[in-house]
Design brief:
Layout (H helix, E strand, L loop, with lengths): L5 E4 L4 H11 L6 H20 L14 E6 L4 E6 L6 H9 L6 H10 L5 H7 L11 E9 L6 E6 L4 E7 L5 E8 L9 H12 L6 E5 L2 E4 L16 H12 L7 E7 L5 E7 L17 E4 L2 E4 L13 E6 L8 H6 L1 H21 L3 H21 L4 H4 L6 E2 L8 H6 L8 E5 L3 H5 L5 H5 L5 E3 L7 H5 L1 E2 L2 E5 L26 H8 L6 E4 L8 E4 L7 H9 L10 E4 L4 H11 L5 H14 L7 H15 L2
Helix pairs in contact: 1-4, 2-6, 16-19
């Protein structure tokens, strides 16, 4: 064996690429540890595999990836018992870039957002070179399993490297990073453990960090999702759930399965048992973690649609490269198949669990508003989501579903009726419900913000149209009232035109209605355009809604309307009473009078007169 140190130039593109990695990716420096640990884990797995068919000894039963930070020497050493590299492999793997060139890497780097940059390191086969982001010199001593020779590769990342004979008692690789002055944070054991927990927590190979003469485990060391369900205890599931989602409770649902066939993956997903402290309504993207061969890749792979973003967990596949890029995540057919399979499995799980009404009610109270978003935005799954929704009802206690509502519909009832508002307690008492209550017709009461939107997209359920009772004219004449009607209705032939003239600038129409019992008036939206709740939301946002003015509906059975009809016959001026009727209708729907102070004075005067 020669004692001569060999000096080599890097491949033509490596020098320029090193400069790019070190400077352009500076803010993502912690990624170096993921890359080196991933390489070490792969080397151990490869040695184990080759030992089955080649004249190679398997790795030790306690094979681990060992990190040794040395603050005094300012070095970080990584050691593995993997397959190792012979001299030629050190030159090929660390001295050239075979798969991609600097030009492609530079272009991708320019196009990538900062959050996408770590994936580019591995994508272009330059993972090892990320070490130079934190080290001004790197030494790699390696011995190929099945051989006795060891070699040391060394470089300062300045365009060349050296190869020299070395000694190593066992096969494997040792990497020594001589850390830069501004990278001493990576010599702190706690910092190293944080990075390992973030990027490689559940890699199956144990990772240890040497501190005070002891090797401390840095990762859990077991990919729980890769185990058979029979091998995992409830406590292990709960511990992993709390770790991955920073929860304090127990999961409401745990889904653990392995898919085999065209696309293979393992999945361990959780639906939380309680609503997180940080509202998930504001966070609009699913954060299920994507792993490739047990290594964490990203939590931005959109493995589930946004309306299932309350689900947490891991999906792990071997059908993707370890360092899959953002571009590949968007276009690869394998990931599209995984997304579809995982989404369908979640829907199936919810359908099954919805059969337990009490348990499902707790889930829906936590995440129902998010689930409803799927009806609005996901045309593919809209009809599957609809039966999973739950609603408060004007006639039922607790929660009810659309299938249950349809089963209870009255003879002659043409539609599924809904009432949308801000306050669920106020909805129960709304004057809009009076005619429906008199006929025993059920109305679903919707008070989530998204309830103003999704019914427009669903439109119908089981061939029954979904109708907002505040929109257009609701005809209940086909359903007989549960109680006998009173006196004949007032003759409003002259009253209605007078009221319309008095409110010309504020209502589009004044008409009678049979959907009131105790109230004199109620507002409705025109047939086409947003209902009253949507109009209120648009007004609050300072936006017009282009649907025209509301409709004022009057109850011809009410004493007040009877009296106003008499005054109309007598030719009295009804401008002031007309304004009061409109303000009453606004108040009943949770709105304010047009002139609150004037309305208060008017009511005060009426009270004073009635008390004399």
């Amino acid at each position: 064996m020669s004692d001569t140190v060999e000096r080599h130039e890097f491949g033509a593109e490596v020098g320029r690429l090193l400069d790019l990695v070190v400077h352009a990716l500076y803010s993502d420096r912690e990624i170096f540890l993921r890359e080196l640990v991933a390489n070490a884990a792969d080397a151990i797995d490869r040695r184990r595999f080759e030992s089955l068919t080649e004249a190679v000894t398997p790795p030790p039963a306690d094979a681990a990836i060992r990190l040794l930070p040395d603050k005094a020497a300012r070095t970080l050493t990584l050691t593995d018992a993997g397959i190792g590299m012979a001299k030629e492999e050190l030159t090929k793997n660390l001295g050239t870039i075979a798969r991609s060139g600097t030009r492609a890497f530079t272009q991708s780097l320019a196009d990538a957002k900062p959050g996408e940059r770590p994936s580019l390191i591995g994508q272009f086969g330059v993972g090892f070179y990320s070490a130079f982001m934190v080290a001004d010199r790197v030494e790699v001593t390696s011995r190929r399993a099945g051989t006795e020779e060891a070699w040391t590769w060394a470089s300062a990342g300045q365009g060349d490297f050296t190869l020299a004979p070395a000694t190593r008692e066992e096969p494997g690789t040792t990497i020594v990073l001589h850390m830069k002055a501004d990278a001493e944070e990576f010599l702190e054991p706690l910092r190293l453990q944080t990075i390992i927990r973030k990027w490689a927590d559940h890699i199956t190979v144990p990772i240890t960090i040497a501190e005070d003469g002891k090797d401390t485990p840095a990762n859990e060391g077991t990919a729980l999702w890769r185990k058979a369900k029979s091998e995992v205890t409830e406590e292990q599931y709960a511990d992993f759930y709390r770790h991955i989602g920073h929860f304090f409770d127990k999961p409401w649902a745990t889904l653990h399965w392995r898919a085999e066939g065209t696309t293979e993956f393992a999945a361990l997903l959780f639906i939380p048992g309680m609503k997180p402290f940080q509202a998930v309504e504001g966070e609009r993207e699913s954060r299920v973690r994507l792993h490739v061969r047990r290594m964490f890749i990203t939590d931005e792979a959109h493995l589930l649609p946004n309306w299932l973003r309350f689900v947490h967990g891991v999906v792990d596949t071997e059908d993707l490269p370890l360092n899959v890029s953002r571009e590949m995540l968007q276009s690869t057919p394998a990931l599209a198949r995984i997304r579809k399979a995982v989404t369908n499995r979640m829907i199936s799980e919810l359908k099954t669990r919805a059969k337990d009404a009490e348990s499902y009610a707790g889930f829906f109270e936590n995440f129902g508003p998010i689930l409803k978003e799927g009806v609005w935005e996901d045309s593919e799954h809209r009809k599957e989501i609809a039966p999973l929704l739950r609603f408060k009802s004007s006639t039922q206690e607790g929660w009810t579903s659309l299938p249950d509502y349809v089963a209870r519909m009255k003879e002659g009832q043409a539609a599924i009726y809904i009432l949308v508002g801000d306050d669920p307690d106020a909805l129960v008492k709304s004057s809009q419900l009076e005619g429906f209550a008199a006929r025993g017709v059920e109305v679903l009461l919707l008070s989530d913000q998204v309830d103003s939107f999704w019914p427009e997209r669903l439109d119908s359920f089981e061939d029954k149209p979904i109708r907002s009772i505040t929109q257009g004219s609701v005809d209940l004449s086909a359903i007989a009232p549960a109680v006998a009607e009173g006196e004949p209705p007032a003759d409003t032939a002259k009253l209605l035109p007078l009221l319309k003239a008095a409110l010309e600038a504020e209502v589009s129409e004044v008409r009678t209605t049979d959907r009131l019992v105790d109230s004199a008036v109620v507002l409705a939206a025109p047939e086409h355009g947003p209902d009253l709740q949507m109009q209120r939301l648009l007004r609050r946002a300072g936006r017009g809604f282009g649907a025209g003015l509301p409709v004022l509906e009057v109850n011809p059975q009410h004493p007040l309307i009877r009296r106003l009809a008499e005054l109309a016959e007598a030719g009295d001026d009804l401008k002031a009473p007309a304004g009061t009727l409109l303000d009453l209708a606004r108040l009943q729907d949770g709105d304010t009078p047009r002139d609150p102070a004037g309305f208060a004075r008017q009511v005060s005067a009426l009270l004073a007169g009635s008390l004399q």
